[in-house]
Amino acid sequence: MRMKAAWQNWLEERYNIDEFKTFAASKLVPSHRYEIWYFTGGIVLFLFIMQFITGAALALYYIPHTEYAHKSIIEIVTKLHAGWFFRSLHYWGAQLAIAVLFIHVFSALLLKSYRKPRELIWISGCKLLGISIFFGLSGYFLLWDERAFAAVRVATGGAGDLPLIGGFIKTFLRGGIDVTGETLTRFYAFHVSILPLVTIFLIVMHLFLVHYHGMGLPRSEENRKHGETPFFPNIFYKDLMIWLVVLGIVVTMATLLPPEIGKQADPLAPAPENIKPEWYFLFLFQTLKLFPGTMLGFNGETIAIILVSFGVLFFFLIPFFDRKSSRGEKSPLFTGIGLAYMVYFIVMTIIGFFS
Amino acid sequence: MIRKFMLMIFFVIIETTTAFANQISIEVFPSTPYDRYIIYEMLALFWAGIIGLVIIIRMKLKEIERIQRMESTEKEEKKIPLLD
What we know:
The structure holds 2 protein chains of 2 kinds. By secondary structure, chain A is mostly helical. Chain A has helices at residues 2-14, 17-26, 38-59, 69-78, 83-110, 119-141, 146-159, 166-174, 181-213, 219-222, 231-256, 282-290, 300-316, 318-321, 323-326, 332-354; strands at residues 28-30, 228-230, 294-295, 298-299. Chain A has a domain at 37-218 and 229-268: Cytochrome Bc1 Complex, Chain C (Up-down Bundle). Chain B is mainly alpha-helical.
């Protein structure tokens, strides 16, 4: 107790703690019937922090070399104390982070939280979603097993189908013409240094913008009378409770469903049968299946990739197309577009999962 | 005796042929029953801890909300003009 008081005195002599407290208490969050969606952002932040911690622990033992990558993961899982648990936590943390990030983005889309002046919040969030998916792909490849190898060959090959820039993107990602050890080194660099740096920058920017503009209010709630709850301690305590439950879910999944390790990748071997990408690529995988080999004399896959790219670009730039929402008017067209995106993603993912 | 020996040889051959066909699966979870028991026990304790902490935080939050309501009522009462 005396120690705590001494530490508090030490801090108060140097910093204006009351100012921090007043600042934290002055941050207000609107309370309304859609407020539950605010918590999805906090869950993503918590899962990202967990990924940084478990990832740092795994990086201490992982060897990014074709000869040792697969073996080092087997060693982590079988020989290190609780190594299997850390790997499993990292795997399930990633799955859940991407899933909750999708929910967060779709909730922002349907509640029109992107409308003026919050366009940059939307853009930084979409970038974070894209980066998280690339995090997932690069992390999956580090396993260096035959399924991960085939998945990266298909994913980078798909990017190569884009006209003009596709060839450059493919070579840049692979570090050569084909997927080799160079690709492993590159993906390791992306996964442990480049992507985390960009992620931290985007998270800081996203949080700063959310603080600057305040929490987004759904259009239907703007004209209604609603109360305001202090962020600290009320919302913070609620966040803490949700984070604890999320931690429990991740730990349970990590314990009951530890991810498998396949056979070591062999660049000369054919791809294993019935391979499927990770669940967040299934909608894309299923979309590519809809297109025939050739369409109007052009490569069907190239046309599919171009259409998907336009779809993603439109999604990214929705705040600039939805002029009605920006003016504070009802925008049923963009509600429909948002619903169409969400339904398409869910349906195609389910079809891809069961087919 | 010879029949038993022949049967043994037969099963040894059968065993080895299937063993070659099997893929070696990597154990991604401790395999001994004792380790598994300890892990599941720890998981149950972990959940008990989480539920306990959630209850404590919820009680604390209720208390804070009660104080906040009392403070707001006090403020409202101070605003009431006094009738002299």
